[in-house]
Amino acid sequence: MDLATLLFWIIAIVLVGSALLVVGLRNIVHSALALVVVFAMAAGIYILANAEFIAIVQILIYAGAVAVLILFALMLTRTNNLRTNSNPNNKQWWLGAIISTLVGAGIILAVTVSQYSTAHVGNAYGPYDPHSAVCQLPPNNVAYIGQLLYSPTCYSYVLPFEIASLVLLVAIIGAIVIGRED
Amino acid sequence: MLTLNHFLVLGAVLFCIGLYGALSKHNAIAVLMGIEIMLNAVNVTMVGFAFFNTARPWSTYLTGQIFAIFIITVAAAEAAVALAMIISIYRKRSTVDVSEINMMKW
Questions:
Q1: Which of A25, A60, A88 is the last residue in one of the domains?
Q2: Fewer Cβ in 10 A, N or C end of chain B?
Q3: A87: nearest CB among B27, B61, B78
């Protein structure tokens, strides 16, 4: 077992354990704090998969912004029995457990042992020739993603990127309109 | 040695933990936390696919990471709007229990 696999297993065990704590803890503030651990460990998984930019964005947006937003919402919607059992299960929790177990078993079956599993997928394009590329390969992950998102000359995702900014604008205005006092 | 199945199985396990949290909680914010875990599971899967991508035209090489960026964007927008709705409902009804919020139920 090499170092990357060892790190993957450590991070994955902490990740799954803290995700179980998020759904299992009795105090919802503790659940929200375990959610921060989930986000940080997911960033570790991204670094292992050579996705440095996604890992940084994950720390900034999820572990920073979304976690603070959730904690603020918890503070603003304070229920009276925060200390005893503020994160109860509903009456159909066993149905949810059965459904999620079946969904997870189906996905794991599909990706590991079925005839459509990704272990059999080969390289359809043949070996890579860097001299045939229209654009020069960028030196690192962040430059690569920047070129994919913004490049005016090569193939890029500039139109979906602008639409994503529009989505964010609509979400900001919608959150202000929905959340204001009237 | 890391394989693609490591990432896919981890994503599947996280996804069904998040699905259980979203299906089985009374508090609307706990439901939202389950949905965030599900979105993170999809991101793990996407980044894993990008890591093991063997397609060599360079424009398609990192498509999974681009997907992950857009998923993070939409998840941030979704969290903002959903928490604003939860706070607005709490102001009117003094509860965030999803089984008591039944204005649209017939």
A1: A88
A2: C
A3: B27
Domain stop point among A88, A123, A151: A88
Contact A54 B8 (CB under 8 A): no
How many domains would you assign to chain A? Answer: 2
Nearest to A141 by CA among A66, A52, A74, A64: A52
Which B residues in the span 29-68 are in contact with A, Cβ-Cβ below 8 Å?
29-30, 32-34, 36-37, 40, 43-44, 47-48, 50-51, 54-59, 61-62, 65-66, 68
Interface probe, candidates A9, A81, A107, A141, chain B, greatest B C-beta count within 10 A: A107
Residue with structure tokens 């999820």?
A: A62
Could you tell me if residue B94 is left (phi over 0), alpha (psi between -120 and 50 degrees) or otherwise beta? left
Q: What is the pLDDT of residue A130?
A: 46
Mean pLDDT score of chain A:
83
Q: Which residues contact B78 (CB under 8 A, 6 or more apart)?
A: A171, B35
Q: Is the ipTM of this complex over 0.85?
A: yes
**Burial A146-179, CB ≥16 within 10 A → b, else e:** ebbeeeeeeebbeeebeebeebeeebeeebeebb
Considering only the beta carbons, identify the residue of A23, A46, A53 that sits closest to B21: A23
When pLDDT is averaged across residues A109-120 and rounded to a whole number, the result is 73
Task: Report how far residue B25's alpha carbon sits from residue B34's, in angstroms, rounded to the nearest whole number.
Answer: 9
CA–CA dist A141, A161 (Å, integer): 18
pTM of the predicted protein model: 0.88
A37 assigned to some structural domain: yes
Give the DSSP H/E element, type plus range, for residue B10: helix B4-23
